Amino acid sequence: MSDLVQQPWFGWAVLVVVGLPVLTIVLTEVEGRLVRRRSSMARPVRLLRAFILPVGALLVLLTQVPNSVVSNESGIVKITATVLGLTVLVFVLSGLNTALFLNASAASWRGRMPSIFIDIVRIIIIGVGLAVLLSVVWGADVGGLFAALGVTSIVLGLILQNALGSIVGGLLLLFEQPFKLGDWIEYSKTRGRIVGVNWRAVHIEVDNGIMIVPNSSLAEGAFTNLSRPTTQWTETVELTFTENDPPRDVIDLCNEVARGLPRLAPGHEPSTVRTGSGKYATSIPLTTFADSGEATAELLTRLWYAARRANLALNGADIWQGESTADVEVLLARAATRLRLEADQVAELAPRMDLERWAPGEVLQRVGQVPTAMRWISEGTVALRVPAPLGGELGVLNLGPGDLLGQTALTRTGTPWTLTAVSEVTVLVLPYDVLTDLVRADNRLARELGVEIDQRKAAVDAAQVQTDEPAMRRSTSGAAARA
């Protein structure tokens, strides 16, 4: 018995007999949990359990068998070692791909890395692994093999120089890094966003689909990276009004609408110039070219509403005010109870009023602005917001159909809140002179307007108190922690 224990292979045999089942059970449990969680790491663990452990155990036993039975230089040992090496190589590739790239978010550097770089790393790992296997297991002259491959590569390069040109061009482009995934470029008078880079070509998403551009064409030609301007990107929108529209009014309106765009670059102002008879161009400073499409669409949408409110004919369209005379009387009849009107007053006052439509996101009234008219909401939702103590805006309440806006027009005072359209809003406009006539006719309307103003100010104060309390608690806790 003591002679058996003293054999050099005995310890290895015990390790295989005991360790292999234990590790198999542990890895089986780990794999089961990963599968239940739908984790991508289940595949590398399965590879480790089902292939690497058994083949590794077999190789250990074969190398510990006396040379008189199985020589370490025999074919069965070398084949087993080769299978183990290839399996480990596959495990390393699978593990790296799963850990680094498979679950990477599109915004991370791993998600933005071009696939061609990943392929190069894989080829390097495979080449190094095969070289180690050939040298260690089979005793091959790796240096001579690489020399032969070098000569062969030169011959193949001369034969396939056109096909390899795109690959080399892609590598040079990526090493220079003139663009990255997600950048917008302009090539051959076509603008698009880069969505993929591989060995042969760059994939550019354009309006009509995906444009495939060979790497060699990009490397030899000229293109513009619109996502990397020297300063901000300026988008110019061509607009058309009628010749009868006063140019100064058109320019002021376009600048005012563009100034309210959410994608306007901070600290910059839009500008509008007259380029011809009824032709105008509005320049919008943006942070990046990627915002140009949405900014243009938002400008045209808001300008459609604003031009009709200002009685300006965008693209020669009919003016909203001229179409709304009959609708004013209909809405005024609906608002008669709220405004304390008699039936005979509706037809009398309708010609003195107007209808307005506002696009989502437009500001109906700003902080401190003195309204020139009171408005009655017919359709849509308006958000009442105030400046937040830590920046931004604080939502207080939403106003809907039947609610009034701009009650302080009666007292000629501003308000501490902003009124912003949440959806498309249609309002009935009561100019100052109409509002004063209504108040003189019925004093109860003035009292009701005063009560509404006080209620909204109370709601603003309550919202600000609720916001200040958490900030105060954070400040107190921070001071206590520093103490």
UniProtKB/TrEMBL annotation:
CDD domains (UniProt xref): CAP_ED
GO cellular component: membrane
Keywords for the protein's UniProt record, in alphabetical order: Membrane, Transmembrane, Transmembrane helix
Keyword Membrane set for record: yes
Residues spanning the membrane: 6-27, 47-67, 79-104, 116-140, 146-175
Transmembrane helix recorded as keyword: yes
GO biological process, one term: transmembrane transport
Subcellular location: Membrane
Residue span of region Disordered: 462-483
Domain Cyclic nucleotide-binding, first and last residues per copy: 337-433
Biased composition (Polar residues): 474-483
Record-linked SMART domains: cNMP
InterPro entries documented for this protein: cNMP-bd_dom, cNMP-bd_dom_sf, LSM_dom_sf, MscS_beta-dom_sf, MscS_channel_2nd, RmlC-like_jellyroll
Protein name listed in UniProt: Small-conductance mechanosensitive channel/CRP-like cAMP-binding protein
Species this protein is from: Microlunatus antarcticus
